[in-house]
Design brief:
The chain is an alpha+beta fold. The protein has helices at 7-13, 31-48, 64-73, 85-94, 102-112, 117-122, 145-150, 161-171, 189-202, 219-233, 252-258, 270-277, 318-328, 331-340, 358-361, 366-373, 393-400, 403-412, 417-434, and strands at 20-26, 51-57, 80-84, 124-125, 128-129, 132-137, 139-144, 159-160, 264-268, 286-289, 292-293, 305-311, 346-347, 379-380, 386-387. Helix 2 packs antiparallel against helix 14 (331-340) and helix 10 crosses helix 18 (403-412).
Length: 439
């Protein structure tokens, strides 16, 4: 599709004609979306007489924050980047690498209404914005509605974790290559998200509501870990586990879902987008749910995240970088990227949802995704933990070090849950202290 550069953008960028910016983009799962993103950037550059140099970076490379920090400290940084706000913005702000962009966000509120509620948690520090919401990424779970319907199981917007486990067993039939449960506890980002979500919905949390103090070792966490461990070790549930699930990586559940052998999986909308754009027969048989509930909360802890623009300290051309960010969040600049990754790339701003019929009618999942952008936050469990918690370098580092998956592996192999949780709590304390958070 043709990318239009509105007159207001041309006027705002006029003082920077002949200028250039360097940008880092967090690589999107869809290649079509990466190409659409680049087309939008180059349309801006051509229309405004500027140069935009865009490089892709993998958010899962592990050393992304360290590299960006080193560039800022060496004065070799690019001007801007976009990345997951929940994973990276807090760390970069802690390191002193980001420019205050409150002026841009306030201007955009006048144009586009409010951003997704989660952005206020992950992009604002001491009342100031340090990242500009770009596009919203919903959290989702997917189940096979045809298998549920065959067994007479009601389709609902969400279920409890126990219901999902029991339903998975009921729809399973290994002789037909139907495995109801498609979530691993092996080292992967998906497993980290699954384990932490179950712990939170049961009433536990890695840290307190300040994000500063480890609170992991609790009776609620132990119960959650027992629940998860039972799924992977109790012979009763063996028929619902696909072969090799104990060694899955982040791409495995995508591949198995698209191979039509799973009844349930937990994933970003990348797998949903893939099934739609490639005409996979699993797409029309997919029922999207926002997540699952637990004993400590009666609605899913599902509020998504945004890919957000940051402007680095020491940027050569920060004002032009702000114009690029403002252009990319709406209109045809966003629409092409959104169509390249359906339901994975969504508007982050309320009025952008109403800007094109595609966001209303393009897919049945858009309704629940838009609702997720408006989730009233914080969400509080009966044990007093509020989510999303403030960005915590200790929590982020503990999850990134795969402490949760290592704990579950030991439980599956026979370690009592209470002992595994206590050991993991001690390891978390060490990591928090390494981050300068005295326990």
């Amino acid at each position: 599709m043709d990318v239009q550069v509105p007159q207001a953008v041309l006027d705002a960028a006029a003082p920077y004609r002949g200028g250039s910016v360097g940008m880092l983009s967090q690589k999107l799962y869809s290649e079509a979306a990466n190409q659409a993103l680049d087309r939008s950037l180059q349309a801006f550059a051509q229309a405004t007489g500027t140069t935009v140099q865009n490089d892709l970076v993998s958010g899962d490379a592990g050393d992304m924050v360290a590299k960006m920090d080193a560039d800022v400290k060496a004065s070799t940084t690019r001007d801007l980047a976009f990345m997951s706000d929940s994973r990276f913005v807090g760390q970069l702000h802690n390191l002193g690498d980001l420019t205050d962009v409150t002026d841009v966000v306030e201007e955009m509120k006048g144009l586009y209404g409010e951003p997704a509620t989660e952005a206020t948690n992950y992009c604002v520090f001491d009342g100031r914005w340090y990242a500009i919401p770009y596009h919203f990424i919903a959290s989702g779970m997917y189940l096979r509605k045809d298998w549920y319907q065959e067994k007479g199981i009601a389709l609902k917007p969400y279920y409890s974790w126990e219901e999902l486990r029991d339903n998975a067993l009921e729809v399973s039939d290994p002789s037909k290559r139907r495995f109801g449960w498609g979530i691993t506890v092996n080292r992967s980002g998906d497993a980290n998200g699954f384990i932490e979500n179950v712990v939170n919905t049961y009433g536990g949390a890695i840290a307190d509501n300040t994000g500063q103090k480890v609170t992991f070792n609790s009776p609620e966490t132990v119960k959650a870990v027992e629940f998860i461990g039972d799924i992977y070790s109790n012979p009763k549930y063996k028929p619902m586990l696909p072969p090799g699930i104990e060694s899955w990586t982040d791409s495995s559940n995508n591949e198995n879902w698209l191979a039509n052998i799973l009844g349930l999986t937990l994933n970003q909308f990348s797998v949903y987008a893939d099934s739609k754009t490639k005409g996979n027969p699993v797409y029309p048989n997919t029922h999207v749910i926002s997540g699952a509930t637990g004993p400590a909360i009666d609605r899913p802890l599902a509020y998504g995240q945004s890919n957000s623009f940051v402007i680095f300290k020491g940027a050569k051309n920060p004002d032009l970088a702000k114009q690029v960010a403002k252009f990319m969040v709406s209109g045809t600049a966003l629409l092409g990227v959104a169509q390249g990754a359906p339901c994975l790339v969504n508007p982050a701003w309320d009025k952008v949802w109403d800007s094109d019929p595609y966001y209303s009618n393009g897919d049945p999942a858009f309704g629940p995704i838009r609702e997720q952008t408006r989730t009233a936050l914080p969400m509080t469990t009966s044990t007093g933990f509020s989510f999303p918690q403030p960005p915590s370098p200790g929590q982020q580092a503990a999850v990134a070090a795969y402490l949760l998956t290592d704990m579950m592996q030991s439980v599956v192999q026979g370690t009592p849950a209470a002992k595994a949780v206590a050991t993991t709590h001690d390891r978390m304390v060490q990591i928090f202290e390494q981050q300068g958070l005295k326990q």
